[in-house]
C-alpha cells in the first residue's frame, strides 16, 4: 500500500494531491458533525425511556413486600424465608396487608374496594394477584437400595420432563388441578432451575378476608407438598401520577435439598408511551432516528459495493455494521412492544376480576431498554474513529493498536493461570463458601480478589491448609506478576509511540490543522488577528533571546548549534512530514531514538544540509 501510494503521489501534481486531501478532510468533518447530531438525538431517546421515578417506585414496593416483617417475629420477612411455615406466615401477614389497603390512616374509607385496591393510596392494583405452583412427580430419582427401607419416595429436581401434570389434594378447585399455559410470558430462570408456564393456579379475591380464608384453607389441606419446586406470586400496579406500570413477581423455590430460596423481580416500565407533550417530542426524535438509520445504511451499502472485501478489513467498519444491527434490533423491539400494548392493554383491563398478565409486556420492554443501552454504548465508542485530529488521542489509539499482539499473547497466558485457580477454588471451597459455589462464581470471586474485595476468613475456614496457599499464590502470580506485566506492555509501547512522535514519525494531523486554519481565516475576516507589527515584535523578541543566551555564558558554537537544530526541524517538517514520512511510517524503538542512528532520517538530514 505504501509503494502504491508513492507511485500515486509521484504521478499526481502536488496541488491536486493537496486538493484531494482537503476534500477528504472536509468530508470527514461533515461526517463528524452529522454523527454528533445523530448521537445527541439518540441520547435524548435513551434518557426519555428511563426516569428517576422508576427507581423510587421499585424501591417503595420492594420495601413493602420484601422488608416488612411477619407479625410477632421481626426477623422473618420474605428475604429470610427458610421453611414452609415461614412462607405461610408471609402469605397471611405482610403479603395480605400489602395488597389490600382498605382505608385511610384515620380509618376513613376513600373509595370502593370492589373496584380495586390502591397500594400506598396511589398505586392501583390491576386485576387480582395470582399464585402459581409447579411440582415434580414421585420416583423422578432413585433411592439407593440400602436406604429404600427408610425412604420409599424420591422427588428430583425440576425439569420439564419431571413436571407433575396430575391432579392432587381435594381435586375440586383449580388450585388442585393442573392448568396449561395460555400466556405469552417467557420461562423463568431461577436459582436452581428454569421454570415453564402453567401449573396449579389460583387467583386471589377482591376481598381481603376471603383471601385470608383461602390461604388458611390451602395451608390446612397441605397445598404445598414435598413435590413442590417453585411458587410464583404475580401482580401488577399502575401509578397515574407518574404514568408508570410496576410489574411484581415474588418467587419461592423449593430445591430438592430442602429449604426455600427466595428471589424477586420489580419492573417499572412506561407502557403508555405518548401522553404528554414531551412524549410527542420523543416521538419526533424516534422518527429522526429512523431517518438517520436509513441514511447510514445507504452509505454503508455504497461503501461495501465500492471497496468489496477490503471494506471488512477495518475494525471501524465492523463497529459501524454492529451499530446498524443494534439500531434495527431496537426499532424491532420498540415496534413489537407498541403493537402488543395496543392489542393487549384493553383486554387486560377489561375484566378486573381476573389476573392481568402484564409480565410479558414488561419482559419485552426491558429487553428493548437493554438493546438501546448497548446501542448508545457503541455509538459513543464510534467517536474514537474521528479523534485522529487530536495528538493525545492519536497517541493512545496508536499505543493500543501497536501492542494488541502482545496483549493477546499475554491474555492467553493470563487466562490459563486464572482458570486453573478458578477450578481449584471451586473444587476445594465450592461446598462451603458461597463465592465459590459454582465455577462461574469462582471466576467472579477471583476478579473481586484482584480488586481487593475478598473473604479470606471464609476461605481459611473451609480449608486451613489449601485456603491460605491458594490465596497467597493467587495474589503473588496474578496480582504482583501478571498484572504488572500487563502494565509494562502498555507502558513500553506508549514510550515507543511518544518517541516516534517526538522525532516526526507521526500521522499528519491535517484535520486539526484545517480547523486551526479556518479559525485563523475567521479572525482575519473579523480583523482580530495580529498585524505584521506584532509579528515583527515576536521576531525581535527571538533575537533578544539570543542576546540573553550570550549574557548568560553560552558560547557562539552552542548558540549556532541550537539555531541549526531549530532550522533543521522546521525544514524536515515542511519538506518530508506530509508526504514521504506519512507513507514510510515505521515504528522506532527507544534505543534508536536515544542513539539517533535512524538511517532514513540521517539521509534526509544530509539532503537538507546539501540543499
Automatic annotation (TrEMBL):
Residues 273-497 form the Polycystin cation channel PKD1/PKD2 domain. Interacts with TRPC1 and TRPC5. The lineage of its organism: Eukaryota, Metazoa, Chordata, Craniata, Vertebrata. Keywords: Coiled coil, Glycoprotein, Ion channel, Ion transport, Membrane, Transmembrane, Transmembrane helix, Transport. This is Polycystin-2-like protein 2. Disulfide bonds join 141-154. GO terms for biological process: detection of mechanical stimulus. The chain crosses the membrane at residues 32-51, 230-252, 277-297, 318-346, 366-387, 407-429, 469-490. It is a multi-pass membrane protein. Residues 77-272 form the Polycystin domain. Belongs to the polycystin family. PANTHER family: POLYCYSTIN FAMILY MEMBER (PTHR10877), POLYCYSTIN-2-LIKE PROTEIN 2 (PTHR10877:SF47). GO terms for molecular function: calcium channel activity; calcium ion binding. The keyword Heme does not apply. It is found in: Membrane. InterPro entries: PKD1_2_channel, PKD_2, Polycystin, Polycystin_dom. One of its GO terms (cellular component) is membrane. It comes from the Eukaryota. Pfam families: PKD_channel, Polycystin_dom. It comes from Orycteropus afer afer. Exhibits a lower single conductance but no spontaneous channel activity. May function as a regulator of calcium channels or a channel component involving Ca2(+) homeostasis. The gene is PKD2L2.
Amino acid at each position: 500500500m505504501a509503494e502504491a501510494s508513492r507511485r500515486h503521489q509521484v504521478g499526481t501534481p502536488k496541488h491536486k494531491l493537496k486538493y484531494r486531501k482537503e476534500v477528504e478532510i472536509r468530508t470527514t468533518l461533515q461526517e463528524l458533525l452529522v454523527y454528533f447530531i445523530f448521537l445527541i438525538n439518540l441520547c435524548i431517546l435513551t434518557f426519555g425511556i428511563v426516569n428517576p421515578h422508576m427507581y423510587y417506585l421499585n424501591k417503595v414496593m420492594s420495601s413493602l413486600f420484601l422488608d416488612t416483617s411477619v407479625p410477632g417475629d421481626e426477623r422473618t420477612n420474605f428475604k429470610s424465608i427458610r421453611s414452609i411455615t415461614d412462607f405461610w406466615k408471609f402469605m397471611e401477614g405482610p403479603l395480605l396487608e400489602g395488597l389490600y389497603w382498605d382505608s385511610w390512616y384515620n380509618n376513613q374509607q376513600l373509595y370502593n374496594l370492589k373496584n380495586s385496591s390502591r397500594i400506598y393510596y396511589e398505586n392501583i392494583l390491576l386485576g387480582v394477584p395470582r399464585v402459581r405452583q409447579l411440582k415434580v412427580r414421585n420416583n423422578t430419582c432413585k433411592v439407593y437400595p440400602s436406604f429404600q427401607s427408610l425412604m420409599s419416595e424420591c422427588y428430583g429436581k425440576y425439569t420439564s420432563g419431571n413436571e407433575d401434570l396430575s391432579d392432587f389434594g381435594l381435586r375440586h378447585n383449580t388450585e388442585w388441578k393442573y392448568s396449561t399455559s395460555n400466556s405469552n410470558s417467557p420461562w423463568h430462570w431461577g436459582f436452581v432451575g428454569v421454570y415453564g408456564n402453567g401449573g396449579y393456579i389460583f387467583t386471589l379475591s377482591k376481598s381481603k378476608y376471603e383471601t385470608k380464608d383461602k390461604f388458611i384453607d390451602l395451608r390446612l389441606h397441605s397445598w404445598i407438598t414435598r413435590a413442590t419446586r417453585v411458587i410464583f406470586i404475580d401482580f401488577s400496579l399502575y401509578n397515574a401520577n407518574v404514568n408508570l406500570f410496576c410489574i411484581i413477581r415474588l418467587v419461592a423455590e423449593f430445591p430438592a435439598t430442602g429449604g426455600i430460596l427466595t428471589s424477586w423481580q420489580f419492573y417499572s416500565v412506561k407502557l403508555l408511551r405518548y401522553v404528554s407533550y414531551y412524549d410527542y417530542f420523543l416521538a419526533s426524535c424516534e422518527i429522526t432516528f429512523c431517518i438517520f438509520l436509513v441514511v447510514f445504511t445507504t452509505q454503508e451499502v455504497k461503501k461495501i459495493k465500492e471497496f468489496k472485501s477490503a471494506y471488512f478489513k477495518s475494525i471501524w467498519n465492523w463497529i459501524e455494521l454492529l451499530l446498524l444491527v443494534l439500531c434495527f434490533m431496537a426499532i424491532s423491539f420498540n415496534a413489537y412492544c407498541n403493537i402488543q400494548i395496543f392489542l393487549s392493554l384493553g383486554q387486560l383491563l377489561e375484566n378486573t376480576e381476573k389476573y392481568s398478565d402484564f409480565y410479558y409486556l414488561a419482559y419485552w420492554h426491558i429487553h428493548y431498554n437493554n438493546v438501546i443501552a448497548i446501542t448508545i454504548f457503541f455509538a459513543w465508542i464510534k467517536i474514537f474513529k474521528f479523534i485522529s485530529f487530536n495528538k493525545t488521542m492519536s497517541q493512545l489509539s496508536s499505543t493500543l493498536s501497536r501492542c494488541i499482539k502482545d496483549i493477546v499473547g499475554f491474555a492467553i497466558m493470563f487466562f490459563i493461570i486464572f482458570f486453573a485457580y478458578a477450578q481449584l477454588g471451586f473444587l476445594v471451597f465450592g461446598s462451603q463458601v458461597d463465592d465459590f459455589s459454582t465455577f462461574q462464581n469462582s471466576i467472579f470471586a477471583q476478579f473481586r480478589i484482584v480488586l481487593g474485595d475478598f473473604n479470606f476468613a471464609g476461605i481459611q475456614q473451609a480449608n486451613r491448609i489449601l485456603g491460605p496457599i491458594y490465596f497467597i499464590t493467587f495474589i503473588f502470580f496474578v496480582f504482583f506478576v501478571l498484572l504488572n506485566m500487563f502494565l509494562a506492555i502498555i507502558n513500553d509501547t506508549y514510550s515507543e509511540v511518544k518517541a516516534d512522535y517526538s522525532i516526526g514519525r507521526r500521522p499528519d494531523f491535517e484535520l486539526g490543522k484545517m480547523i486551526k486554519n479556518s479559525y485563523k481565516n475567521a479572525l482575519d475576516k473579523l480583523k482580530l488577528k495580529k498585524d505584521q507589527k506584532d509579528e515583527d515584535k515576536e521576531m525581535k523578541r527571538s533575537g533578544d533571546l539570543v542576546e540573553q543566551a550570550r549574557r548568560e555564558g553560552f558560547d557562539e558554537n552552542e548558540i549556532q548549534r541550537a539555531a541549526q537544530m531549530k532550522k533543521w526541524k522546521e525544514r524536515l517538517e515542511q519538506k518530508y512530514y506530509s508526504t514521504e514520512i506519512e507513507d514510510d511510517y515505521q515504528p522506532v524503538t527507544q534505543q534508536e531514538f536515544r542513539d539517533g542512528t535512524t538511517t532514513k532520517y540521517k539521509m534526509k538530514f544530509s539532503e537538507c544540509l546539501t540543499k
